[in-house]
Amino acid sequence: MNSPYRTPDANLEAGDMRPCIGCAKELHVTASSCPHCGASQRSRGYKSKTTAAIFAFVLGGFGAHRFYLGQWWGIFYLLLFWTFIPGVIAFIEFIVFLASNPIKWDEKYNEGRPPGPNDKGGGAAVVLVLIVGVFVVVAVVGILAAIAIPQYQEYTLRSKVIGAFAEVQSVKLNVEGFYSRHKTLPDSNIMTGLAEPYLLKGNHEVTVSIDGIELRFSSENSQLDSKTIVFSPSLNGGKIVWSCLDGTLEFKLRPRECRN
Question: Can you tell me whether residue 230 is helix, strand or coil?
Fold first, then answer.
């Protein structure tokens, strides 16, 4: 039983002859055109393995090479291109196409007939697929960049925020230590033994007041520069409990415990 994924071999005998479809003169069955009247003997256009390979390499993830070869199941590549699996398969097929024996290629895809003088080499198709491929690749890269770049920028900003949060922990301990000794909250950096101003890595500034600890960010990015988070203290059973919901920093850039 023939596989549905290939064109049946022509299975031609060397001595077989047939009449020309144009002038009815006897021709060998492998003749691609009639030497007498020039009529093409093909039932469909010649399929160049080089053109098919270029389709597989440039747009293979969308099944372009299979559509070029007249195989309807290229639609499965198109439906599943987003998984990148068709692209991997197409790259393997690109190598297989280039390495294919020309005689076997013609038996499989060209009814056993080699290219003749009337058969185009596929140059125009190659140029077209390269142009289309460039536009498709640029479009895909543009879409991925539009998604990935903002996500990366947000990830970078959140990393800076988390780093500053880690440094603020020591400031919290100073405030808690001051409260345990004096039973009152400090109202300045000096009272907790910190410099004025007190700068963290990245030049983020920490200010201690009676209302708590203000962390003011320094950054070249406008989403972060001069934005603040206020760590507000409250007493619970003689211990300080911190809340970090106040301030001007967007909630999406804050750690989970500091979001509404």
Answer: strand
The Cβ of residue 95 has, within 10 Å, a number of other Cβ atoms equal to 12
β 239-246/17-19 pair status: unpaired
d(CA 178, CA 174) in angstroms, rounded, equals 6
Q: Are 160 and 219 in contact (CB under 8 A)?
A: yes
- CA proximity to 155, closest of 214, 66, 108, 221: 221
| 39 close to 33: Cβ distance less than 8 angstroms | yes
Q: What is the DSSP letter of 40?
A: B
Determine what percent of the chain is predicted with pLDDT higher than 90: 28
CB 249 within 8 A of CB 161: yes
pTM over 0.85: no
pLDDT, one tens digit per residue, over 187-213 is: 999 998 898 889 998 889 999 999 999
Give residue for tokens 């949060």.
165
Q: How confident is the model at residue 154 (pLDDT cuts 50, 70, 90)?
A: confident
